[in-house]
Every structure is written in C-alpha cells, then in structure tokens.
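Everyone, carefully examine this protein record:
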Amino acid sequence: MLDFNRVRTKELTLTDLAKGLSVADLHRLTDEMVDTQQSLIHDTIDQDVTFLPVDPEANDRFATDPEEVHRAWTLAHVIVHATASSEESAALATDLARGVEVKGRSRYEVSWKNVTTVAELHAKLEESRRMRHAFLNAWPDQPNLSLTYTAGYPGATPVNAIGRFIQGLAHDDAHLGQIKEIVKQAKSARGI
C-alpha cells in the first residue's frame, strides 16, 4: 500500500507520490486497500455495524443534521463514506484520463443508516472494488496525464488522473485507524 504519511506531513505532494504509478499499479493498490478494509472487519458481528463508539474528536462539518455534527460515526457510516469518496475519486480520475475537464463532483453515498449487517459491509466493499476497477478499465490506452484538477479544500494542489485516483486511496487510508478503533471499542463492549 502507498504510505500517505509523508503527504500528510507535507514532506511530499500527492503528485510526488503518484509519480511512476501505472494503471496496473492503481488496480493493485485498489485491491490492497479493499483487502485491508475487509480484514479489519473480518471478525465483526452485526451488532458492531451500528455500535456507536466514543469519539471525543467527532466533528462532521458536512453533516446535514446539526445533532450529528459531533456524533461519533458507526462502522457502517465510515465504510459507506470511505467507499463513496474513493468511487468519486475513481470517477473523476477517469474523466481526467479521458481528457475531460472536471467541473464538479461525482458522488453518491448510500445512507449508512440503512446498513446494519456485516454482510452488507462486505458487499459494499466488494461493490466499491468492482466499481473502482471498472472506472480504471474505462481509461484510454494512452491516458491524458497533463490535465489537472485541484480539489476545493485549503492547501490542495493540482493532480492529474493518477493523483486524483490516489486521493481516494488516501481518504480510505485516513479512515483505517478509525475503523480499527470502532472495532476495538465494539469488541470491548461485547466483553472481547
């Protein structure tokens, strides 16, 4: 898997990290990430999916319900959110690779409130894997790597198609610790 720590500490840009990566690498990195997410939830049970952990740092600035801004995320919420972000990155990366300027978002996130079983989490991860591979398979043989996109958050730097794709992997990576912590707390609540 890619090590995004040096990007987070601003020692490297995402573009630096993306240098030399091929479409085949993006397929492999997708599998590594989804496999990692699957392994983190491999021994969870259905009640863990909706378990509400303690998270004193919870701050969802995009929450539409004011009561949810500082509410901790469930395992279902994290998985649904992370997969939606990676799928959006894959979709926008495909546009860039095809030479199409990115002018907006391409995001759909299923309601995490409707995801209540471990089977649904596993299925969502596998669906996301399939979708990301499908987006990569839609890249032309000679992808446009000169066209760039700059995300709309402070400090964002321009990225090409490969950089835009790995932004999704970076987002997934940023949630791995959260997934581990939720699983740990859920198991503890069950006396494990």
Observations:
- Residues 161-189 form the longest helix (29 residues).
- The helical segments are 5-8, 14-18, 23-40, 46-49, 75-97, 118-137, 161-189.
- The radius of gyration is 17 Å.
